[in-house]
Specification:
Udp-n-acetylmuramoylalanyl-d-glutamate--2,6- Diaminopimelate Ligase, Chain: A, domain 1; globular; 493 residues; six-stranded mixed sheet; 16 helices; Protein-Tyrosine Phosphatase, Chain A; 23% strand; eight-stranded mixed sheet; UDP-N-acetylmuramoyl-L-alanine:D-glutamate ligase; alpha/beta
């Protein structure tokens, strides 16, 4: 695409662009990047001003990598053609969508938003769509897949240029759909610009990310963008009617499909999964669905809600047989109630739960199937909503027999002070729940596994599939599952 064509598109979209260094220059643009280290010849480099660095400072690096042009918010020292806009981040998605041929318009786009359940719901959606013969791309907290290649995700919602490149690869690889997590942060700062969604799913809303949003209303309004700014014409919405924020969405969008536990009968839960019947009593829930027996390998009542969300979202697009096949074929979602049977007779479960509600859900999911002691190991991330720390302690004390408080991405905070806040919550319960503080996360898990025995369940929560610990500005290689496997090897050596 020609540089001049991009400028014209930005004019048409209302970005009011300016241009510099364009006399006689109209280069072709083949890629869009916001990371100067990834720039390829012929690329457009977008100079984003972030929290810790300013992309304008890397214009020369992009020039050395043979970038063809820049997008900036103010003039920089360069001989490359420059597009000037008020907000590079806002414009980047529109630019990237145009350069990559508007891939989101060529795919069935399904976006999932909410505090908890996003990752699992996207995995369910992908499994059902693929059971229906639709090759499906995936973007979320755990992995990114273009339908052929899969890699670990760097963030829940990628930068808009990276997302458009992923979608373009998905189209090239023959995908007919993409399911993705749409984080509140990604929605609020415009990472979804250039995308519109056929399907929008709302799972729930609990206090989280308020360090960024400020209050629950602002958090909700960010989530709501999926159903307004980023919706295609005649979208399908699936909204959790059991959540008060979901009920609010349903009032605003009465045409939306809803789901909830009033649609469930004959529910049987075990550590092997869930079996239940979806029995609709209140149309338009699930459209024309009257009764559908389903089985899922996912553990816990809250995963029943995630199944309901996916089924409600895809009603009318897939058959009941495809739903049944897709649900039975759901893979183990990494770091989501991920089970490890230990040689000492204990069961270790790794989960991403890092909010009080998510921890309550995870502990409750295994409490009924735990014949022995329930041991909870967790911490809380630094630079995150601090009020969740005592709440996490209270939640664990109400459900676990033993708690080990440890480290979880302390970032720039003192992990001992984070742990102290969690302990305050534990002690406030006054129930005498046994606990200890072991800040070294590996040591904490080793200790928990060593004291566990037959029938005990150890829930290690907070990090899920993450492969690093963030301490100050360093990312130290670390993974909970690898730690569990290492303990098992040492125990049997």
């Amino acid at each position: 695409m020609k540089f001049s064509t991009l400028v014209e598109i930005l004019w048409q979209k209302g970005f009011d662009p300016g241009i510099n260094n364009c006399d006689g220059k109209d280069p072709s643009i083949s890629n869009v990047f916001a990371d100067s280290r990834r720039v390829l010849p012929g690329s457009l480099f977008c100079c984003i001003r972030g929290e810790k660095s300013d992309g304008h400072a890397y214009a020369a690096v992009a020039r050395e990598a043979e970038a063809s042009a820049l997008v900036c918010e103010y003039p920089v020292e360069t001989d490359l053609p420059v597009i000037l806009v008020k907000s590079v981040r806002e414009a980047m998605g529109t630019i990237a969508a145009a350069v990559y041929g508007y891939p989101a318009e060529k795919l069935l786009m399904a976006g999932v938003t909410g505090t908890n359940g996003k990752s699992t719901t996207t995995f369910i959606l992908r499994s059902v769509l693929q059971a229906a013969g639709v090759r499906t791309a995936l973007a979320g907290t755990i992995v990114e897949s273009d339908g052929v290649r899969e890699r670990d995700a760097e963030r829940t919602t990628p930068e808009s240029c990276d997302l458009q490149r992923l979608l373009a690869a998905a189209v090239k690889n023959g995908c007919g759909a993409c399911v993705m997590e749409t984080s509140s942060h990604g929605l609020a700062v415009g990472r979804l610009n250039g995308c519109r969604f056929d399907i929008g799913v709302f799972t729930n809303l609990n206090p989280e990310h308020l360090d960024f949003h400020g209050d629950m209303e602002s958090y909700f309004q960010a989530k709501r963008l999926l159903f307004t700014r980023y919706a295609k014409e005649a979208p399908v919405f699936a909204v959790n009617a059991d959540d008060p924020w979901g009920a609010r969405l349903l009032e605003e969008f009465p045409e939306a499909g809803s789901f909830g536990f009033s649609d469930v009968e004959e529910m049987k839960l075990s550590m092997e999964g869930a079996a239940f019947t979806i029995q609709t009593k209140n149309p338009p829930r699930f459209s024309d669905l009257k009764s559908l027996p389903v089985k899922s390998p996912l553990v816990g009542r809250y995963n029943v809600a995630n199944v309901l969300a996916a089924v409600a979202a895809l009603r009318g697009r897939v058959s009941d047989a495809d739903v049944a096949r897709g649900l039975s074929a759901i893979p183990q979602v990494p770091g989501r109630l991920e089970k490890h049977e230990m040689s000492n007779g204990a069961l270790c479960i790794i989960d991403f739960a890092h909010t009080p509600e998510a921890l309550r859900n995870a502990l409750s999911a295994v409490r009924d199937f735990c014949p022995g002691r329930l041991i909870s190991i967790f911490g809380h991330g630094g630079g995150r909503y601090a009020s969740n720390r005592p709440a996490l302690g209270k939640t664990a004390a109400s459900l676990a027999d033993l708690i080990i408080v440890t480290m979880d991405n302390p970032r720039d905070e003192d992990p001992a002070l984070i742990a102290e806040s969690i302990v305050q919550g534990i002690e406030s319960q006054g129930g005498g729940t046994r606990y200890q503080v072991i800040l070294d996360r590996k040591e904490a898990i080793f200790t928990g596994l060593s004291i566990a025995g037959p029938g005990d369940v150890l829930l290690v929560s907070g990090k899920g599939p993450e492969k690093f610990l963030t301490i100050r500005d360093r990312k130290i290689p670390y993974n909970d599952a690898e730690t569990v496997v290492e303990w098992e090897k040492l125990a049997n050596s």
